[in-house]
TrEMBL record:
PANTHER family (alphabetical): GLYCINE CLEAVAGE SYSTEM H PROTEIN, GLYCINE CLEAVAGE SYSTEM H PROTEIN-RELATED
Organism name: Dyadobacter jiangsuensis
The family this protein is said to belong to: Belongs to the GcvH family.
Name used for this protein in its record: Glycine cleavage system H protein
Gene behind this protein: gcvH
InterPro entries per record: 2-oxoA_DH_lipoyl-BS (IPR003016), Biotin_lipoyl (IPR000089), GCV_H (IPR002930), GCV_H/Fam206 (IPR033753), GCV_H_sub (IPR017453), Single_hybrid_motif (IPR011053)
CDD domains, sorted: GCS_H
Length: 126
């Protein structure tokens, strides 16, 4: 299983890549493995200012629907347009073309409480 070291992780199994005052967010390889085949991604929060831990959308797999939680406060700038036609990108490339949203950070430094790759691996027992 892959745990890119440049990312931060949450106990809700989201990852975040921070570049300046913008962040890209998706779900981890572990999360997509647990969910199984992703059939639909529902995110309709573009333009919304969300607090850390708020739900920014949901992901539907064959057997379940799971909420997606924003790891840091920010405003949703963009949803990955490719997921409409190809939700399986979350399964095949969770850290690349399967990203979910881009946000502008409300409070730079919010990510300080998130997990490193090593801490996340320990958290999930990998």
């Amino acid at each position: 299983m892959n745990f890119p070291s440049e990312l931060k992780y949450t106990e809700d199994h989201e990852w975040i890549r921070i570049e300046g005052d913008t962040a890209t967010i998706g779900i981890t390889e572990h999360a997509q493995n647990e969910l199984g085949d992703i059939v639909y991604v529902d995110i309709n929060t573009v333009g919304e200012a969300l607090g850390k831990g708020d739900v920014f959308g949901s992901v539907e797999a064959v057997k379940t629907v799971s909420d997606l939680f924003i790891p840091v406060a920010g405003t949703v700038l963009e949803v990955n347009p490719d997921l409409d036609g190809e939700p399986e990108l979350v399964n095949s490339d969770p850290y690349g073309s399967g990203w979910m949203v881009k946000i502008s950070l409300a409070n730079p430094g919010d990510e300080d409480g998130l997990l490193s790759a090593e801490q996340y691996k320990e958290f999930i027992g990998a």
